[in-house]
Amino acid sequence: MTVKEFNLAVDQYSDGVYRFVLKNIKDEDKAKDIVQDTFEKLWKKHSDVNNDKVKSYLFSTAYHTLIDLTRREKKQARWDEVDDNKHSFTDGYSDLNEILHQAVDRLPEIQKMVVMLRDYEGYSYKEIGELTNLTESQVKVYIFRARKYLKEYIGKMEVVV
């Protein structure tokens, strides 16, 4: 990969990588840091990365960086700082989009990732498998389970609303 190809990759994929990361962590500063780290890692390996595979490399690297950050933060979390109001259904909801985002946040990390890659970013099952080191069958199972949970969660919320 040349410097020109690297700059072109930054122009083409930085927004998509940023949106993907931001949808998962909902913190603009952390998302920007992850995107910057991702492109830094690409630059360090630019001679080894084929220009045809740069998009896959970027999303895969961003995914793994995001997972590493999430795991580090989970280890640092303290139970006495948990807000019980965030984990209850006592609030009145008026926006289905808000309910959907809350439901997605409750998914296990791997299910959340594959659903985000499939439904928000439009990746194929095969591409998601390559990005997450899962088989196509595993990706399909995780997406099925995630969608089933989302459907049940939204159905329960409609009863509450």
From TrEMBL:
<dbReference type="InterPro" id="IPR007627">
    <property type="entry name" value="RNA_pol_sigma70_r2"/>
</dbReference>
<feature type="domain" description="RNA polymerase sigma-70 region 2">
    <location>
        <begin position="10"/>
        <end position="75"/>
    </location>
</feature>
<feature type="domain" description="RNA polymerase sigma factor 70 region 4 type 2">
    <location>
        <begin position="98"/>
        <end position="150"/>
    </location>
</feature>
<keyword id="KW-0731">Sigma factor</keyword>
<dbReference type="InterPro" id="IPR013324">
    <property type="entry name" value="RNA_pol_sigma_r3/r4-like"/>
</dbReference>
<dbReference type="InterPro" id="IPR014284">
    <property type="entry name" value="RNA_pol_sigma-70_dom"/>
</dbReference>
<dbReference type="Pfam" id="PF04542">
    <property type="entry name" value="Sigma70_r2"/>
</dbReference>
<dbReference type="Pfam" id="PF08281">
    <property type="entry name" value="Sigma70_r4_2"/>
</dbReference>
<dbReference type="InterPro" id="IPR013249">
    <property type="entry name" value="RNA_pol_sigma70_r4_t2"/>
</dbReference>
<keyword id="KW-0238">DNA-binding</keyword>
<keyword id="KW-0805">Transcription regulation</keyword>
<keyword id="KW-0804">Transcription</keyword>
<dbReference type="InterPro" id="IPR013325">
    <property type="entry name" value="RNA_pol_sigma_r2"/>
</dbReference>
<comment type="similarity">
    <text>Belongs to the sigma-70 factor family. ECF subfamily.</text>
</comment>
<dbReference type="InterPro" id="IPR036388">
    <property type="entry name" value="WH-like_DNA-bd_sf"/>
</dbReference>
<protein>
    <submittedName>
        <fullName>RNA polymerase sigma factor</fullName>
    </submittedName>
</protein>
<dbReference type="InterPro" id="IPR039425">
    <property type="entry name" value="RNA_pol_sigma-70-like"/>
</dbReference>
